Amino acid sequence: MAAARAGIAVRVQTDLKNAFTTGLNKSVPVGWDPSIKTGKEHLKHVDPLGQMSAGELREHINALRREGRVKSFEKLSEILHKLMADPRNRHGVFNTPVDPEAMDLPTYNEIIKKPMDLGTIDSRLQQGQYLDIQDFIADVRLVFENAMVFNPRTHYIHVDAEILWRKFDAIMSGEGDRQIKRMLSPRGHVCHACMGHTCTICEQQCLQFTLPHLQCSGNCGTDIRKGSIYFVTRDGSRVWCHKCRNRTARETEPSGGRKGKKKRGKGAEEPPVPGVTNIQEYGDLVKKKCEVEVEPWVKCFECDRWLHQICGMYNPVQGIYCANNDRALTESTSVSANADTVIPTCKLSNFIQEFLRRELEGVGETSAAQTLYVRVLSFAGERMVIPEAVNKAFQENTTALAHSCPDRDVSGQVLPAQVPYTSRGIYLFQKHEGLDVCLFGLYVQEFGDDCPLVANRRSVYIAYLDSVRYLTPASARTVAYHFIMMAYFDYVRRNGFERVHIWSCPPQKRISYVFWCRPSFQKTPSAEHLRAWYNRLLDKAKARHIVKGWSTMYDRYFINVDSTQIPFEDSAGAAPIATRGVTSRVVDPNDHVWPTHQLPPLFDGDFIPAELDRILGRIAARNGKVRRSTQYGGKSTTIGSAGGKYGIIGGRAVRIKEEQPTQPQVEAKLREVFDKCQFAVQRLKNDLLVVDLAVDTTVATPCAPQLDVPAWSTSVPRFFGSRFMFHQLCSSAGYQFDTLRRAKHSTMMMLHHYLNEQVPQANTFCAECHLLISHVNLWRCSMCPRFALCDWCHRHRTDRHPHPLELRNVQTHQVVQASELLPPPAI
To answer: Which residues form the CBP/p300-type HAT domain (predicted)?
Structure first.
């Protein structure tokens, strides 16, 4: 067969027309024109297939075909496992090969010429050895046929084999199962994407992507489910579910439109979506349906055959290499290129890599030690923004405390608006069939001596950690990840850091931490399993004198409550403090004090800032409800209890003169916030860890992580240092890691984006909200080439940038008139 011949990869022209590509390639922005070549003269090509040797190319194609057969026969594996677990398969008698000697069956090999069992069939399925479904059917029938031939008709094994045979034939008839019917159909699959073609590399037809993870930007925050209608903005940065869009459109309708009577109480409508002030902001919303996309296809100009764009390692901005062209093998490169040279090394990456390889050699994992390599991408000057409600609450309580106790030092509970830190992304790579695969990702936040938040100084926060199970050999997987973590701990303790903070929290079922769509055979660890994984890591680090010990966030920052109380007398001479809940009254100054000796550390994306924000939101909602009830009065309202604008005197509602407060206003008392936060942290006591590093206290080591950032890091795309942005890019552009084939392509695109940040692909993020902008026309600054804003931030936050912004086409670099913009087509 022509598709089976593996030859040299041949370069195909980059100016592909629509006739040679089908399906939707989500790695390019909406409005992208493949005929425009602007900027391609500066393109740095990442062509892994063109740099592979002939042997590596054959190995790669064979691996893809094996994986394709395993994927296409997944339904057969389910059927086989049902037979293996069937009650008629007593004691698994059909699951293992017959041992004539152990079972004292001297005539078995004479009667049964072709022994077969379900376990052997399962092994062949997992290895992708079956080329046709009929071969699988024949082997399963052979198992039961052998049992019926060797055993008499009245024997229970003969009876069970006959029953299981009939069950198997009934299942394979395809009645009620569309997938089985499609597998048995000689016609095959035909759709607008594949047009009936079979991929010349993996020999499969249409392959579905995972359903994209879309979350409503409205107040509900729910996930957009398959088949649901949703609305997306012109720039693709935000989506709304049907309910939130319609509700907000009604609430922002002009005065001339129809308005229903507002509801109050339990059935009241939710408040409008934050940031949306008028219906015009919804004028560019496009109605779409949440559906599963299929992999796009591309046609080779040389051999005129079709293949999946992922199989051909296709990048729409630079073209394709056809791996099945009939060129002489002697024309192929003799030595494969080292893709690990694309990302340069640094002090930290060299330290971790040397530590990893040395320790793997020590435990006998030599093959893994020789093929794994580490790269670190660092970003200095990152800023964590303290939630506005949290900052405001601490400021109000500090002001109130300073007013009631002028002699008390209140600087210890003042929060800065922003906390600077250095972010690092640590990645582990390994070559598979000559192609690089990213296996492990670790995101950390480093806070030095200059951090304005005292509790954060000389500390490291393990922000996110994730892996995909493609590391070979599998026996080296856990130890390799432990060695990377220990190497990082050892490095930071040598550079002045004293603590490492860890939140042991497994990802949700449908949401990955770093890598979008992990393999189906990789289970999500439970909280207990992940906690035990970290405990084993810390035990190993302590045995190597890297870690001195560890405790919990609760024990360190929430249990040692300060017993010293501020003297307080509830008398007329005491200074009143106005609380916004009900009325002006005298409040104990101790209620405005954070009761522990030190504030807890706050990290970007950590549990405590989010929990404080949630607590304050509930307190504000409660106080607002009380204010509304007292403002409008009620049947049981009195002058003393109302404290608002109206009261009941003599059965009549009278207006009460409201005095303007002259004392500090407090929405939420810190003591109440602490009690609620303490309860929440106690529930996660064993998951929030504080690790003390084994630091040499006799030597004063400065801690300045921003000075340990290579000069070349300034040109690295920002999303490599942010899990939030990296995950957005992968999920939006379809860079999945659920199969090794897709992991190879996704890693190639990672390296491409690293080298070609200026290429107009779906790799531009808003500088304010950090959301991905998926349209070719976006707001750019002519003086700051890396600065861009989404439509919403341009409307509301333009004043934060010192230079004027223009709506430009990132392909042509031409200014686009906002009035000429058209929303992307509905799909």
So the answer is: 337-759
